[in-house]
Specification:
Radius of gyration of chain A: 26 Å
CATH superfamily of one domain in chain A: MetI-like
Oligomer: heterodimer
CATH class of one domain in chain A: Mainly Alpha
Strand content of chain B: under 5%
CATH architecture of one domain in chain A: Orthogonal Bundle
Number of helices of chain A: 14
Radius of gyration of chain B: 25 Å
Structural class of chain A: mainly alpha
Structural class of chain B: mainly alpha
Number of helices of chain B: 12
Helix content of chain B: 55-70%
Distance between the termini of chain B: 56 Å
Number of strands of chain A: 2
Number of strands of chain B: 0
CATH topology of one domain in chain A: MetI-like fold
Distance between the termini of chain A: 6 Å
Largest sheet of chain A: 2 strands, antiparallel
Shape of chain A: elongated
Strand order of the largest sheet of chain A: 1-2
Order of helices and strands of chain A: HHHEEHHHHHHHHHHH
Shape of chain B: elongated
Largest interface: A-B, 62 and 51 residues
Chain lengths: 340, 310
């Protein structure tokens, strides 16, 4: 299979997956929730109440608040139904939503009526993306030298200590590590700001530093373990012995000859791990009170603001799947043997 | 002189190729004598910790500890640091942190067990069936697993918990669903591997029914790699509950879980004035996850299971 064909196949699957994901999310939210109630609150029950008795009545909502139902309320219900297409059937609503979504329009928020979901996403997502990019960068920057160092002295006491250390880090839940670092670096030492500061790029990076480290440390331990195992195998190959015997310096053997062919498991996991990183980011944003996608999703979930939740779920999932396709491509670029 | 100099160089530089002794078993003479694989003392320490914490959790109602919901502020005080009266101190409502850690273990461990059991039963049977039957059923479950895996795990959990009532039961089911795809893929791979072996062909030949082959021939072989995954999966489920707790999406009401304790103790005020409220459950959570990961890793090594990814 050629690279182009492989890519086309993957992209086809990608679109199929996104359709499945959005359909499941859209369906579950509309069937299990009550969109009309989420938009209007108690008066959403007005139409049914009136059609039963034929005149203006008072409906009692589940939280005990009495609501008056008159012609105005009925008009509001009908307007909302029309605006959000709630009078249409579920498949039709999905197709309408999909048609808008592919053009970059994710509808309007239920909670802040009239606010465009696309704007909310554009506002919140970059903060989370910056955090994730910082975390992955820090993780790789730590993992590569650490992995090479550990592999070059495999089996020695220092390697065993580092293995125990990385095992401990892998087992550390990120929220637990977050609280410990928050306590030590921010509360006790006061090296970093308490709140997220949004003045310029530098202040953003500065206030995202501790959260990024929190996310990066456990990931770097995962990467280090993989890199170390693969490097140990590579270092036994004949071409390493050859390089050593012709007098190539130790450092250059490790970083130039051995590192590249030892990166495969590492790169595969880089993609898979992005899922864990996304989950971690949502939780860590809560701890450090960062106004990113994570905080927004949770707020939207509690308000049952479905268009916002749906938009974030679809966009994040799309990014995650796309990243995994890119990782696969990178894989075949790094190792031509995969391109068979 | 020259030889001395030479050997000095070797000491410095040769480890690139020779330091790997004892790590990779190939062509190392000494390895031949290490014949019996053992689980090692670390495994038994891990199991010991797990047994201790499970026992404490089971015995919580009869242990001589204060009621986890009761306000001890008149005897001990609010946000009191650890003392002989309250071993792990008290929290903002004057409740005994030690007692809450033990009671929290009951729920957190239950979540771990139940979620893994759910994933094993559903993922395991789907995976075995698709590996055994192949054909359209295999393609269908394959796409199902792929769809489940293309959601970042926590996003899927948030979606489900936000739409359902958050009882202990639904939290276990939600975390169990996350395990279906990884378990399913593993059991499918293992089933395919064993389905081609001679003993299965032999069973076919003597006319064994398909159900019998699945249960009597294949299941016992698939169970071993699944066991290692179960230990690792429990750790993942317990941590995931903690993540949900931070988002306010864990079990509703007064139910105590480690995740909820840590989330409660990590308020700005709490962490500054009473760090022990968060740190003791963190320690217990960490040690339990470490023990599960370590034991799972050892079991995997012991039985030489390769295709595990959580």
């Amino acid at each position: 299979m050629t690279l182009a064909r492989q890519l086309a196949l993957r992209l086809g699957l990608f679109i199929l997956l996104l359709l499945a994901v959005s359909m499941i999310t859209f369906g579950a939210m509309n069937l299990l929730g009550d969109p009309l109630f989420n938009i209007l609150g108690p008066i959403s029950g007005c139409e049914d109440a009136i059609s039963e008795s034929g005149e203006s009545v008072t409906v009692e909502s589940s939280d005990g608040l009495a609501q008056n139902c008159g012609p105005d309320q009925i008009q509001a219900v009908q307007d909302a139904k029309e605006q959000y297409y709630l009078d249409k059937s579920l498949p039709e609503r999905y197709v309408r939503w999909l048609g808008d979504a592919v053009q970059g329009d994710f509808g309007t928020s239920f909670a802040n009526q009239g606010e465009s979901v696309t704007n909310i996403v554009r506002d919140k997502l970059p903060v989370s993306l910056l955090l994730m990019v910082m975390a992955q960068t820090i993780a790789v920057v730590i993992a590569i030298p650490w992995g090479v160092w550990a592999a070059s002295r495999a089996g020695k006491a220092s390697d065993r200590v580092s293995t125990i250390g990385s095992f401990g880090l892998v087992s550390m839940p990120n929220f637990a590590l977050g609280i410990i670092l928050y306590y030590v670096l921010i509360v006790r030492l006061g090296w970093f700001p308490f709140r997220y500061e949004d003045d310029d790029l530098w202040s953003r990076i500065n206030s995202l530093f501790v959260p990024a480290i929190t996310l990066a440390l456990p990931i770097s331990a995962v990467y280090q373990r993989l890199l170390r195992t693969d490097l140990i195998t590579t270092l036994q190959d004949d071409f390493i012995l050859m390089a050593r015997s012709k007098g190539v310096p130790r450092r250059s053997v490790l970083f130039k000859h051995a590192l590249r062919p030892s990166m495969f498991s590492f790169i595969t996991v880089f993609g898979i791990n992005a899922g864990a990183l996304i989950g971690g980011t949502l939780v860590i944003e809560r701890i450090f009170q960062i106004p990113g996608a994570g905080s927004e999703i949770v707020t939207a979930v509690f308000r049952e603001d479905f268009p916002v939740v749906l938009a974030f779920v679809v966009i994040i999932t799309a990014g995650f799947v796309l990243l995994n396709i890119l990782v696969d491509l990178l894989y075949s670029i790094l190792d031509p043997r995969v391109r068979t | 002189m020259t030889t001395q100099h030479h050997s000095h160089l070797e000491d410095e530089e040769v480890p690139i190729t020779f330091a790997v002794e004892g790590v990779v078993a190939d062509d190392m003479p000494a390895e031949q004598f290490v014949t019996r694989k053992t689980l090692g003392w670390g495994f038994w320490v891990s199991i010991g910790w797990l047994v201790a914490i499970i026992t404490a959790a089971l015995l919580a109602p009869v242990l001589p500890i204060p009621d986890p919901g009761v306000d001890l502020s008149s005897d001990v005080g609010l946000r009191e640091p650890p003392s002989t009266e309250a071993w792990f101190g008290t929290d903002a409502l004057g409740r005994d942190v030690f007692s809450r850690v033990i009671w929290g273990a009951r729920i957190s461990l239950t979540v771990g067990f139940a979620a893994v059991a759910f994933g094993m039963v559903f993922g395991g049977s789907l995976g075995m069936l698709s590996g055994f039957l192949r054909g359209w059923f295999d393609s269908l479950t394959g796409f199902l697993f792929l769809t489940l895996l293309s959601f970042p795990a926590l996003i899927l959990a948030i979606l489900m918990t936000s739409l359902l009532d958050r009882t202990l039961f639904t939290i276990c089911v939600v975390l169990g669903v996350l395990g279906v795809a990884p378990v399913g893929r593993l059991s499918r791979a293992a089933t395919i591997q064993f389905a081609e072996r001679e003993f299965v062909t032999a069973a076919h030949t003597i006319g064994a029914k398909r159900g019998r082959i699945l249960i009597r021939e294949l299941l016992p072989n698939v169970v071993i790699p699944m066991g290692a995954l179960a230990l690792l999966g429990m750790a993942v489920a317990i941590v995931a509950e903690g993540g949900l707790a931070f988002l306010g999406l864990s079990v509703e009401g007064d139910t105590i879980t480690w995740g909820k304790m840590i989330a409660d103790g990590s308020d700005r005020r709490e962490i500054e004035d009473a760090p022990w409220v968060a740190f003791f459950p963190i320690t217990f959570l960490f040690l339990t996850v470490l023990a599960l990961n370590f034991a799972g890793d050892k079991v995997r090594e012991y039985f030489d299971v390769k295709e595990i990814s959580v």
